[in-house]
């Protein structure tokens, strides 16, 4: 397993792009089946991928699937028909990929998975660039354990898209993180589909069901966008997010740092939007030199809290395509 170090943020989009020196991918045609634009993080991943492609001279064929697997499958078949040199895919859900990836393999087109995993034979893709999503959930859970100490704490969970690898793994990791701490109880858990609007809506339901929210100690959201939606719902209910109800989530997008700077969010686990840098490096080495990359290229998962200069983090990230 390769651990891909994130570059220091702060100097705009250029700072996030890969600086690795490789032959080059100029003139290569690469298809990218993106999930959609459900979150700020997703928008940043799209921007970074386009910028990385331009920097490397890649002719990137971009297809937005609008959250539908059937659209992704159609796009991949289109890329195969065009005879692209490689395919990037951010798989919306983890199952149902065998057939189309077998078609890509039979056409000798290497496929790289971005940011989400799939339940399929590893022979069907060249490599996967993603975070350790179980670890992300565990880091969030361990942060909560440390923060509440022995205090009783009822937690509500906003899950990501049903059937997606981050929703499955971040749930598992969080439960591992709080395991053995009987004072912490996961009382409610529902999908908010990784969007701000659904995060708010589901949190409103949780608050109503929990007597206006007085019995909720913390909300764990599988991404920052849902956390930002939940923060709004908590405020609308007359409570203070960040103190009456703790808020912990994943992504580290600018808006969660703005909320943190305002005292309304407590912790986030960073997910770099630069999955394309390591993916293009791997394709470069493979297409130009025949080097088979490691099967799993793992990005870092760093915890940020209000002690980590949230205003500075907000300023450093806001120009990065979010
Ligand atoms: O797969 C990565 C997740 O997808 C991000 O955490 C989330 O914001 C996005 O929608």
UniProtKB/TrEMBL annotation:
<dbReference type="InterPro" id="IPR028082">
    <property type="entry name" value="Peripla_BP_I"/>
</dbReference>
<dbReference type="GO" id="GO:0030313">
    <property type="term" value="C:cell envelope"/>
</dbReference>
<comment type="similarity">
    <text>Belongs to the bacterial solute-binding protein 2 family.</text>
</comment>
<feature type="domain" description="Periplasmic binding protein">
    <location>
        <begin position="30"/>
        <end position="289"/>
    </location>
</feature>
<dbReference type="InterPro" id="IPR054837">
    <property type="entry name" value="YtfQ_transport"/>
</dbReference>
<dbReference type="InterPro" id="IPR025997">
    <property type="entry name" value="SBP_2_dom"/>
</dbReference>
<protein>
    <submittedName>
        <fullName>Ribose ABC transporter substrate-binding protein</fullName>
    </submittedName>
</protein>
<feature type="signal peptide">
    <location>
        <begin position="1"/>
        <end position="23"/>
    </location>
</feature>
<dbReference type="Pfam" id="PF13407">
    <property type="entry name" value="Peripla_BP_4"/>
</dbReference>
<keyword id="KW-0732">Signal</keyword>
<dbReference type="GO" id="GO:0030246">
    <property type="term" value="F:carbohydrate binding"/>
</dbReference>
């Amino acid at each position: 397993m390769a651990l891909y170090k994130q570059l220091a943020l702060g100097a705009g989009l250029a700072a996030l792009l890969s600086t690795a020196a490789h032959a080059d991918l100029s003139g290569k045609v690469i298809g990218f089946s993106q999930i959609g634009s459900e979150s700020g993080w997703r928008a940043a991943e799209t921007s970074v991928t386009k910028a990385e492609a331009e920097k490397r001279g890649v002719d990137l064929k971009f297809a937005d699937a609008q959250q539908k697997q059937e659209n992704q499958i159609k796009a991949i078949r289109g890329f195969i028909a065009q005879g692209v040199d490689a395919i990037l895919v951010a798989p919306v859900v983890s199952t149902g990929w065998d057939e189309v990836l077998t078609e890509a393999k039979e056409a000798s087109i290497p496929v790289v998975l971005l940011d989400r995993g799939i339940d399929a034979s590893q022979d069907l893709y060249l490599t996967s660039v993603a975070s350790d999503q179980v670890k992300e959930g565990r880091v969030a859970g361990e942060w909560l354990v440390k923060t509440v100490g022995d205090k009783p704490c009822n937690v509500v969970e906003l899950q990501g898209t049903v059937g997606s690898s981050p929703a499955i793994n971040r749930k598992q990791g969080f439960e591992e993180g709080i395991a053995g701490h009987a004072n912490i109880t996961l009382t409610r858990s529902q999908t908010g589909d990784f969007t701000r609007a659904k995060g708010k809506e589901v949190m409103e339901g949780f608050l109503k069901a929990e007597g206006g929210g007085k019995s909720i100690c913390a909300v764990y959201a599988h991404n920052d966008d849902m956390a930002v939606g939940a923060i709004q719902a908590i405020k609308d209910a007359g409570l203070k997010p960040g103190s009456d109800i703790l808020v912990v989530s994943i992504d580290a997008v600018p808006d969660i740092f703005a909320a943190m700077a305002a005292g309304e969010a407590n912790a986030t686990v960073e997910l770099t939007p630069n999955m394309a840098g390591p993916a293009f490096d791997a394709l470069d080495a493979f297409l130009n030199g025949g080097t088979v990359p490691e099967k799993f290229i793992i990005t870092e998962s760093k915890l940020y809290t209000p002690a980590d200069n949230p205003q500075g983090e907000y300023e450093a990230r806001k120009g990065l395509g979010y």
